[in-house]
Amino acid sequence: MITPFTKNPKVPYSSWVKRFKLHGRGYKVLHHIDGRRKPAETDSTYEEWCEIDAHVLQWIYGTLNDDLLSRVLEEESIAYEAWVRVKNNFMNNKGARAASLESEFSSLKLKSMPSLEAYCQCLKEIVVQLKDVDAAVTDQRLVLQLVRGLTPGYDTTTAYINQTLPSFANACSMLELEQRRQASRDEPLIVLVAPSSPTVETSGWVKPKSSSSNPPRAKTSGGRSQKNSGRSQNCGSNKPQTTAPQSNWV
């Protein structure tokens, strides 16, 4: 059973062809798109060939976006015929396509893109599409266009790239490092300061503080402590003396 790869409307034609052929080679169905003649109806393999060809045709249609599909879809067709129609759609009017892509390539700016990564990726995709219409862009020109569309925040890195003219991949890496450096510089500095003394929260009830570890002794009128007089006060009763706690509210 043939299962198509995931549809991606942003894949350029040349990349689509490479991926399709790679997948077709894995399933041993390249003979359905390379122009070989289909077997005669009297051939014993005719029915099997038609069944496999229908899968490949469905595979082709399933990997096209809706706009392109409406232009190449036909009621009666084999896989190779659909393959040729897709190719002609991209190869025809190459001059007009090249002019449109050149304009898009030259006017692309970083400020119009959501991120630096998206900006670099978009430039690369346009270059691949220009190659498909025989309007290849050199790596040096790609690098120069890359720095031309940057914002003033990258002026230092831009000057270095213009002097050294590295590869497009290295130039993108340099810009990403500069972006990270700027991001780390703009982050606020957070300093944690330990409090000088712990803060104790209270719910309103404060336990009275004593001057010593032993509770104070109440004196009687004779000057003796209540410890010695407690025996006479409780004389005749075995019940312990209870005293209601005093409350201090803040």
Give a brief rundown of this model.
The chain is mainly alpha-helical. The protein is built from ten helices and no strands.
Question: How does this model look, in words?
Answer:
With 250 residues, the chain is mostly helical. Among the domains are: 13-91, no CATH class; 94-185. 52% of the residues lie in helices and 0% in strands. It has 10 helices and no strands. Helix 5 packs antiparallel against helix 6 (116-132). The two termini are 82 Å apart.
Q: Estimate the strand proportion.
A: under 5%
Could you give a short account of the major beta sheet? none
Number of strands: 0
Envelope shape: elongated
Name the helix and strand elements from N-terminus to C-terminus, one letter apiece: HHHHHHHHHH
Estimate the mean pLDDT confidence.
80
Q: What are the low-pLDDT stretches, counting only 5+ consecutive residues below 50?
A: 1-6, 225-237
Could you tell me how far the N terminus lies from the C terminus, measured between alpha carbons in angstroms? 82 Å
**Which structural class matches the secondary elements?**
mainly alpha
Tell me the Rg in angstroms.
42 Å
Enumerate how many helices there are, as a single number. Answer: 10
- What's the helical proportion of residues? 40-55%
